[in-house]
Amino acid sequence: MGVVADFTPARNALSTALTAAPGAQTMAEIHFFEDLTLGLTAKFSKTITEADIVLFAAVTGDTNPMHLDAEYAATSIFKERIAHGMLAAGLITKVLGTQLPGPGTIYMSQTLKFRAPVKIGETVTAIVEVAALHPEKHRATLKTVCLVKGEPVLEGEAYVSVPSRAAITKAAE
User: Fold this and answer.
1) For 77, what's the count of Cα atoms within 13 Å in the CB-facing half-sphere?
2) Which residues are within 8 A (CB) of 133 and not within 5 positions of it... i.e. 6 or more apart?
3) What is the CATH number of the domain that holds 153?
4) Number of domains the chain is built from
């Protein structure tokens, strides 16, 4: 049993992703706290690749053979390699930081419940929905979920600090 060591596919995938990711969304306009409403949602979908898993293992140091060693994973309850759970969860941060609320958002906390594994080649859709607003500190509670084929693979709740238009205007005066 060996750990994947060839990072060439990961480097190639990263280069492609950075230059022309098909279907990639660009940074959206900022949603200030004052723009948020209950039920407002945003989503992002990504197909998980071999390169994603190898890169995530390299960045985090999580070289669990469940993710990297097909022979080992074949003996598990999943019978094949699976993506790191936090790789799927990481798609939530993409939505929070670039879409809803967007640039300037600061993560305060996140709960996660892992419901099912994500396999190589599956498309994960991260969805964020405004669940509660806390105007006294310009914070929001957001329902977070990642779906594969319409079924939840993880669910949770994020608590974030959101830039305020009023605070930025006041600071500029």
Assistant:
1) 2
2) 33, 36, 38, 139, 140, 141
3) 3.10.129.10
4) 1
Residue partners of 164: CB distance under 8 A and separation at least 6: 32, 33, 34, 138
Give a yes or no: residue 64 inside a domain: no
Residues 128, 40: Cα–Cα separation, whole Å:
8
Give the torsion sign (CA, 47, 20, 3, 90): negative
Q: Which domain holds residue 125?
A: 27-48+83-172
The model carries a pTM of: 0.81
Give me the helices (H) in the chain, please.
8-20, 50-60, 65-68, 70-73, 85-98, 165-172
Q: Is residue 147 part of a domain?
A: yes
Pairwise CA distance, residues 128 & 99, whole Å: 9
pLDDT tens, the chain, 173 aa long: 455 445 455 445 444 444 444 444 444 467 899 999 999 999 999 999 999 999 999 999 999 999 999 999 999 999 999 999 999 999 999 999 999 999 999 999 999 999 999 999 999 999 999 999 999 999 999 999 999 999 999 999 999 999 998 777 766 66
